Every structure is written in C-alpha cells, then in structure tokens.
Amino acid sequence: MRLTAKGRYAVTAMLDLAVHQKAGPISLADISRRQGISLSYLEQLFAKLRKHNLVSSVRGPGGGYQLERDPGQIFVAEIVDSVDENVDATKCSGRADCQHGEMCLSHQLWSDLSSEIHHFLAGIDLASILAKRNVKQIAARQDAIEDEFVRLPVVADL
To answer: How many alpha carbons fall within 13 Å on the CB side of residue 52?
Structure first.
C-alpha cells in the first residue's frame, strides 16, 4: 500500500495554503518554492482541487489560491480523493482478480485495510494537522528560507 506523490503533494500544498491563509491568496510559485513541488505539477493538482471546491482562485495582481472552506472543514481524504488518488492496499487495485483473474485468499483483508485507511484520513482535518507544534516550526523554517531566497541579490551576466 502506498500513497503516491500526487496525494502527498496535494495534502502538502493544501497545508501550505492553510498555514498562509491570513496573507490572502497564495501563488502557486510561492508554494512551489516553499515545498519543492514543480509549478506545472501544482497547476495540475490545483485544477482538480478547484473542481472539487476545495480551493478558489483569485485573478490579477496579488492573485493566487485560497481555501474554499475553513481548515477545520477540509479533510485529508477529500483532498486525496479530489486528485484521483486511491489508497488501496490490495494487489489488484480493488478489482478482486488478484489470483489468475479470481479473488485471492487475503483480498478481503487488504480491502478492509484500504477502507480503514480512508476512514482514518476522513477524520483528519487540516486544522488538526496545523495544531501540531512541529508543523508551525516547519512552516516558520520554510518561510525563513523563502525570505532569504527573495533577498538574494540578482547578479548580472558577465
């Protein structure tokens, strides 16, 4: 069982929005720099997040993305589901054709585990993640790094 980069990156980007929500709309370029996620990949993820009403976009100068709802009302399972990510512990991707086209002996066990994981993620909202002390410390470190990045002098080509 594994959650691919798509799901992890979507959750990370949504947490970044939640951490910085008081600053107004956040650009994908800012999220990209802070989180080390490709800008083009973020654009694809945010199209899906927007389609599922998890974020909204603001156009123009100072534009970007913002959470559509309060962080306490956005759950990790919603985010993962919105980017077409599937947390599946079965070998057959839930098709029940794991052993030569038939269900294997342990299929139901792994299927039940997949359901439990989804249920677990459905009970975790962004606000509860943000409430953890180390999340705030990590965000502060990332902001400090970005501040240093912004202040670096531009060197002209010789």
So the answer is: 17
Domain assignments of the chain as residue spans, ordered by start: 5-151
Long-range contact list for 30-39, CB < 8 A, 24+ apart? Answer: 30/64, 30/146, 33/146, 33/149, 34/142, 34/143, 34/145, 34/146, 35/9, 35/142, 37/9, 37/12, 37/13
Q: List C-alpha distances in Å: 125 to 61, 122, 130.
A: 30, 8, 9
Q: In the 8-state DSSP scheme, what is residue 83?
A: T
Q: Count Cα neighbours of 129 within 13 Å in the Cβ-side half-sphere.
A: 21
Q: Comparing C-alpha atoms, which of 2, 54, 15 is closest to residue 139?
A: 15
Phi-psi region of 112 (alpha: psi -120 to 50; beta: other; left: phi over 0): alpha
For 74-112, the pLDDT digits (tens) are: 999 999 999 988 888 888 888 888 888 888 899 999 999
- CATH architecture, domain defined by 5-151: Orthogonal Bundle (1.10)
pLDDT 10s digits, 14-72: 999 999 999 999 999 999 999 999 999 999 999 999 999 999 999 988 899 999 999 99
